[in-house]
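Interim report, section 4.2 (structural modelling).
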Amino acid sequence: MSDNDPMTINRRTLLRQAVYMVGGAAGLNALAACSDQSAEGDAIPRLSGPGRYFTGVRMTRLKVIVDTIIPDTDTPGAVAAGVHTFIDQMMADWAEPDTRDQFDKVIDEIDERAVAAHGDRLTRLPQEQRFAVIRDYDAEKLGQRNWPYRRFKDLVLVGYYHSQIGATEELQYELIPGEWKACLPLAEVGSAWAD
Amino acid sequence: MTADFDAIVVGSGMSGGWAAKELAERGLKTLVIERGRHIEHGTDYTDFKAPWELPNLDAVPEREQVHYGGRVIAASTAHFRIKEDDHPYSVAEGKPFRWFRGYHLGGRSLMWARQSYRMSEMDFEANKKDGHGNDWPIRYADLAPWYDHVERFAGISGQAEGLPQLPDGQFQPPMELNCVEEIFRDRLHETFPTRRLTIGRCAHLTAPTAEQQALGRGPCQSRSLCSRGCSYGAYFSSLSATLPAARKTGNLTIVTDEIGHSVVYDVATGKASGVRVVDAITREHRVYTGRIIFLCASAIGSAHIMLNSRSERFPTGIANSSDMLGRNLMDHVSGLGAGGYMPGYTDQYYKGRRPNGFYIPRFRNVTEDADFVRGYGFQGGASRGDWRRGGGQAGIGAALKQDLRKPGGWSVWLAGFGEMLPNPDNRVTLHPTKVDKWGIPLLHIDCAYGKNDLKMARQANRDAVEMLQAAGFQGVNERKAEPDEPGRAIHEMGTVGMGRDPGTSVLNGFNQAHDVPNLFVTDGACMASTACQNPSLTYMAISARAAHYAAEFLKEGKI
Ligand SMILES: Cc1cc2nc3c(=O)[nH]c(=O)nc-3n(C[C@H](O)[C@H](O)[C@H](O)COP(=O)(O)OP(=O)(O)OC[C@H]3O[C@@H](n4cnc5c(N)ncnc54)[C@H](O)[C@@H]3O)c2cc1C
Ligand code: SF4
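Predicted structure of the assembly:
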């Protein structure tokens, strides 16, 4: 049977075609749900619809990137905290065209690194390879004091640690501490303050 | 003809609030004219919002940042900032000056960092001793009871130290130093026995008095959200303290969105008869008449109004027979200092956000000599790093999360504020041709540091580095080699200076214009020298004192 046979079409092709066929975000979201049960497991993320600024493709990459930088561990990570949505919203509401270009480029560059290193798009790599690609990119860009990437990473961190999840589940935050205790054993406080 | 008001106060900020309170409490029907919009204490603040409740996590859109001088600022405080392009001013070629304003009810008393220090006897004597500037017509003893008065009402938290260069005041309980600050203090005192480190003295209530509570003010909650305004009224501002007290007398009227244009001079009486205003919204002109006029529009703002008050008698601005109006513009020499890291103490932390740091009072030309005159003090603080450190360091994934879950290492900063000498060539004038949206001539600022200021700046950097190194901090770096441009300290003063001689100063020892007996200027404009302490507490004391005398003179029929 040929690859075009609708009966044998693989999951990957289906999803890719669906993007063209359905177009709208609603269709993508409907499809995204089934991608989780994909035979490729982790390798295929939930497909994101286009954001308010980012295209659907970049939104999907962004989600993978923030999930890799701040994953779920014993506490929820960046995706649970909505960091990808936050960054998209910042591009729409806050960023100037130059900044948007910088962010697009960071996202695309990471994807190009994936293709160069592993021959496939970032979103289709297994978790370990994604991690290696982003870890190396992060080390290289910060080593070069690369400003666009620094801004990107800063926004990921602020998006996470100032979200309710990041500030209150991962770290601690008190809107009204009520008192200043100048010297306390760290063990008594527990984790770092979000602010 | 009877006047509309007994007293008119132009400006509702740090000094205007005090003038209004003291005049109204002495039974004078008082009008406050404020150019900015009304702000409602409490309801106009954003201090009950957690970070995630603020739109876009509190970022101001990049395209709008240009209106705020290109600075990245928080959206939750942007409504206290002017849009610079609405309020232009010009500067002399090659002489940058940053004029940082707050145009709204309460002025910069809502925006300040609340550090509150008295000037000392040596500060009031300095001009006379080394010959720079006019001799102050008052001494510490004249102001001391007024410092007591304003501290009791405003509420200043601090630690008494018994230092001649930084007199103690009427303090509420001090805040505490954290562990590394205590270590720094102890090692500093060992190495430099005459350099002291003390907790910052700040206008926060730590044990509110009955009078403060009656105004609806409560104790500080250690939130450090002060720049959004404080609904607890825990820090001193015109809105938390002086204006509510003035309102209680029943003698206060406030108008907002009305720009003080000029002081009206009456040749027949030789006195000021009122204030001409421009409605900020309709641009209509109107005149309010009053028996005494207090200008409290901030140092440069008050000079601006006076320069624009031109008459046949005073063609270059009201009360300017000395030609000193607009001259001797000063700020603190700032941008100096150093920072470093303290290894270890990683098992020590704190709880709460202390809205205050520590202070190292002046030692140059007090206990240690220098190759310049006057001196500087340092503000500073030590704290542990937070998650923001993750942005610049390599690392992702679970390990990054794990690392940022713990506080980072300890770091410290020291920021020097130095005394800038008076120099009549540093001045503000009216722009010869350009006007603002309301038809008022723009202000032109011509100001630069002198030799003494720059020499002092270099020594301040050296001292900061030396103190941190001696205390065991590592990676110690001076902040920058040259000071920030004048204006950056936001302690601008001078321009309508006090002095004994009407030939060389504009105001006398009661802040009364030598030439116009019912005109008083009590904001930073009146300062004959800057000392090195944050100045606002002194503006408060001077305003309260001048209001007292103005009311007396009025009662005695002297003005
Ligand atoms: C971020 C920041 C931190 C600071 N930290 C400290 C500190 O820690 N310690 C310290 O001592 N000082 C500090 N300052 C400085 C302090 O805020 C000022 O010294 C103080 O507010 C000056 O008081 P003022 O009454 O002269 O002026 P303002 O408080 O600025 O008030 C002037 C008022 O007059 C109004 N006005 C101006 N022109 C006109 C006009 N033509 N007609 C009518 N109204 C007019 C303004 O709108 C304003 O409301 C800080 C300032 C800032 C901005
Ligand atoms: S730290 Fe104190 S003064 Fe500042 S906002 Fe909080 S309660 Fe108010």
